[in-house]
Write a structure and sequence with these properties.
A 5-stranded antiparallel beta sheet has the order 6-5-4-1-7, with no helix packed on it. Strands 2-3 form a two-stranded antiparallel sheet. It has a domain at about 20-95: Roll (SH3 type barrels). It has one helix spanning about 1-20; strands at about 20-25, 30, 55, 60-70, 75-80, 85-90, 95. It is of the alpha+beta class and about 120 residues long. About 20% of the residues are buried. Helix content is about 15%, strand content about 30%.
Length: about 120
Amino acid sequence: MKRLFFISLLLFAFVTMDAQTYYVCTGNSVYLRIGPGKSYEPVTYYSGPKEGRPIFLYKGTRMMYVGPTKNGYARVNAYHDRGYDQGWVSTQYIRPEGSKTTTKKNKNKKSSKKRRR
């Protein structure tokens, strides 16, 4: 009976871990904030040489959605150079992992306007 309980507990843990929603950061130097809005301070490093400096998220940073979305900010558990921290990120700077961005880039497009001297 104990074995059956233990196996079912492991299966439940595996299924719930697999159901997590992951996102990636689409901007550079995006603040991880302590609350859902610009009025909230950024999360800071609490130890080491960067102690007291804000934590920035860079393009491609992986994060896990952990809570509600409020005021255009999502509560996430984000990875950075010192580990994971929980905070809030603007939803305009995140997208689901594996999805493609919808913005079009115009590389090396020359202007059709002639320059006057």
